[in-house]
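To: structure subgroup
Subject: Chain for Friday's discussion

All,

I'm putting the inputs and outputs inline so they're searchable in the archive.
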Amino acid sequence: MRRLLLAIYALLIVVPLVVIVGGSFKTTADLFASPFGPPTRPTLDNYVTILQKQDLLRVLGNSILVVAVSVPVTLLLGSLVAFAVARLPRWPSRILFGIFALGLAVPAQAVMIPQYVQFDRLGLRNSLTGLMLINVVVTLPVAVFILSGFMRTLPAELFEAAEIDGAGTWAAYRRIAVPVAAPSLAATAIFLVVMHWNDLLYPLLFIDEPGKRTLPLALLDFQGEYLTEYPLLFTGVVVASLPMVLAYAFLQRHFVAGITAGAVKG
């Protein structure tokens, strides 16, 4: 039974992946004639069209900039809060963790209108700075939730020894907690990169200017009211996914170590 469920789950992952990657090498006619079959006449025209788009480099640069700023800031704030959760006494620690856990319980759609009004008043609409800010705010509870599980497993003796040597709270965080938590930080970074890179909701909500669009928002150009250019859309999805695939390929060792870190005690 377990193998059957795993096989069904694998098909749910593999079939869409095969359709998208194979469809990026097909024409529209070939795709509709055989959506699940291999390309009969493979073509790179879709990739040429995507790469020749004048704003591709701009939207790609926007996405890279948003991710490059949002992820380190979220990791910094998240690790600081997680360190506080691990080092504070029981009740203050629970209250602090509960405040950020509430951020996971509130659906994003429930606060979209207040966020839009507030960002409009502050002049943060159509701004990459505003997009970075909302990314940090939305994903900070995720970072705190992941990192707190690891920080709580750090032996208290490490910090007691640091205090005896004269290290303050900041020194203990910077010289002990951060280096030891490197695998967990790497795993959290991968989660955050994927979330920020693939985010469509907030760019769609806050960005109207073509020059400030991110890559997922630019992919909507291939989807019209009456016609969707599926081969170009699939090609754009493949191009947008490549950085994530490469990042995971290089960081998978840290990803697995970070996921298992803090899972057990003792």
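Points worth raising on Friday:
The chain has 13 helices and no strands.
Residues 262-266 have pLDDT under 50 and may be disordered.

D.
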